[in-house]
Amino acid sequence: MIVVDLTDRRTFLKGMAAAGLGAVTAGMTGCASTGRRWEIEPVTAPSREKVRVAFIATGGIGGYHLKATEEMDVVCPCYCDVDTNRMGRARERYPNARAYQDYRDLFDKEHKNFDAVMIGTPDHHHYPATMIAMQLGKHVYTQKPLTHTPWEARQLTKAAAKYKVATQMGNQGHALEGWRLVYEWINSGALGDVYEVHSWTDRPIWPQGMGRPEKEDTPPPNLDWDVWLGPAPQRPYVAGPAADKPGPYHWFNWRGWWDFGAGALGDMACHTMDGVFWALNPGHCTAIEPLAMTNATTESFPDAAIVKWEFPGRGLKRGFDCYWYDGGLRPTVPEALEWGRSLPNTGNLFLGTKNSLMVAGDYGESPRIIPELKMREVGKPDKMLERSPGHVAEWLMACKGEKPITFPKSNFSYAGPFSETVLLGNVALRVGRRIEWDGDHMEVTNVPEANAFVSKEYREGWRVTPPLDGAVAGTPSAPAATS
């Protein structure tokens, strides 16, 4: 039997203005319970045709979750968004569902009424929302990057193994044909030994490289700013230039701030570098180095960056280096590319001892052996991987017990280590120098101060302790208690 304890919840939820809150349950005002405990039986597949899904965040990518499940075996008893103005699609699709602005209240009041959650919050909320759900025995679909810090990713990897729920990270390209072809070319030996990989993106398309705004505005009645901040340090709300335009934080622009997002690297590498981790299965990197960055500040990510990971050899596979480029930076055009051709806006280059491969796009689209003469010579690889019925469909089939919990191919046993490694790039950017990584002990060995960025501090009321090993060696700032 699983016992879940969420202690020191806020003892009082601020009263909210009535405007725009007609769909919000009356339980959102007044006193919230503290120290509540639930005894939950081990998770089982739903004994019904439809999966009861609670949507945590209904605007932005949360709207995609609602749209993607419209034609699937899903019902929604409840949903949550910190901004009631962003609830429109959920309210329209599920008019009888109960609405919340704080997912902790949703878990408090509704945990017996749903089987699974889809989480599309800003990055700094991914870990607490996901860990609470898993402790309650709920299946979880969480958007990329899986977490905000490497430590959080390691904890969700362990939690998934413990709780045996169906999990999936929202990197939709993992279900498409392109990455499967990349996997099959590489693992059939068509490239020989891959010794270098280059991945790049056209992001950021939001502001980065800036300092904190000095102004302070009153949050609108539709937004619970304290809940939006969640585990992040307190700071004033700042409005956008107009009511229908995002401010520097809410909505969308949070991606550029260290406290809330993961920058262009965290936002896109869980798409663009997916083939690297799936096809090469590199394990822990040994070093991460920021080779270039512009306008880095203590508040936000740099405007542009190049980051390098070093992966050692494993078994018969040789080691390789992986490079990331954002902010308009690009790798050198390889000699193998035909004269006159240029690199796409986003993509990958896999350089091998026999052949090289180029991928155009963030989701594994249009992979080709280069040059084209070699592509015609090598041809398409033999199939080695099962094809997907769809990224969300994989997860729902596992939720229903129609497939094993390992059927979603970006489940947390894969997505956790992948996200952890990607986010180590942000640790290197934060300290601005090459760091050496002991993956087994989860510790930066050559720059001790970098370990403070492997995890982070959590604001009171938002710490969720993993019920496993406690703090990880080498991360003294890792949360040690639920509060």
Which features characterize this protein?
single chain, 483 residues, alpha/beta, Rossmann fold, Dihydrodipicolinate Reductase, domain 2, nine-stranded mixed β-sheet, 12 helices, disordered N terminus, disordered C terminus
Largest beta-sheet details? 9 strands, mixed
CATH C-level label of the largest domain: Alpha Beta
The number of distinct β-strands equals: 20
Strand order of the largest sheet: 18-17-16-12-15-14-13-19-20
| CATH architecture group name of the largest domain | 3-Layer(aba) Sandwich
Envelope shape: globular
Mean pLDDT: 88
Count of domain modules? 2
Strand content: 15-25%
- Provide the structure class: alpha/beta
Q: State the end-to-end CA separation.
A: 23 Å
Low-confidence blocks of residues: 1-39, 470-483
Multimerization state: single chain
Number of helices: 12
CATH superfamily membership of the largest domain, which one? Answer: NAD(P)-binding Rossmann-like Domain
Radius of gyration: 22 Å
Residues in helices, as a percent range: 10-25%
Q: Kindly identify the CATH topology of the largest domain.
A: Rossmann fold
